[in-house]
């Protein structure tokens, strides 16, 4: 299994480590030509959605990335800023999303005091898992086509729409590989 990890900015190395623990191969997607490779899925990491958005445009990668995802029916997993990029609406003109999931992301949603925190919560189909939040978003509104996989304090922090998965937290910053395993299982399902 070969996963392209968008490596423009942010915590992409941690995803690569997680994937290697699960014996999945990773390819860093740094420039337009990297999108020509055969991939089974794509991860959009945490970082700053405004920066990732700008770099996608500056490097002329936005349209090619979207075409690859849509034409090749690729599963995508976004964490934190990755969730913001997967949404349809970020309520911030500087963070232009890819619009893969029918939801609105609220950026920096926990305020200054709660900018970063860890908790343990239930993730549908997986069980109770550790969650690390860093200046995290949550999903403010979602269409009925979006399955809610986890909530923390009544806020949606993980969701799936078909072959698209997004978490407001960073599973790659814990030692629990379950969410990445869940994504790899989604890829296997999607191929059938
Ligand atoms: N606050 C960041 C943003 O708005 C997300 C933080 C993260 O990815 N850890 O993009």
Beta-strand percent range: 25-35%
Number of helices: 5
What Rg is obtained from the alpha carbons, in whole angstroms?
15 Å
Helical fraction equals 25-40%
Order of helices and strands: EHEEHHEHEEEEEEEH
Low-confidence stretches: none
Sequence of strands across the biggest β-sheet: 2-1-3-4-11-10-9
What ligands can be seen in this structure? glutamine
- Measured between the Cα atoms of the first and last residue, the distance is 14 Å
Write a compact overview of the structure shown.
With 192 residues, this protein is an alpha/beta fold. It has helices spanning 12-21, 49-58, 62-71, 81-86, 178-191, and strands at 2-6, 25-29, 41-44, 76-79, 103-106, 116-123, 127-134, 138-142, 147-152, 155-161, 164-167.
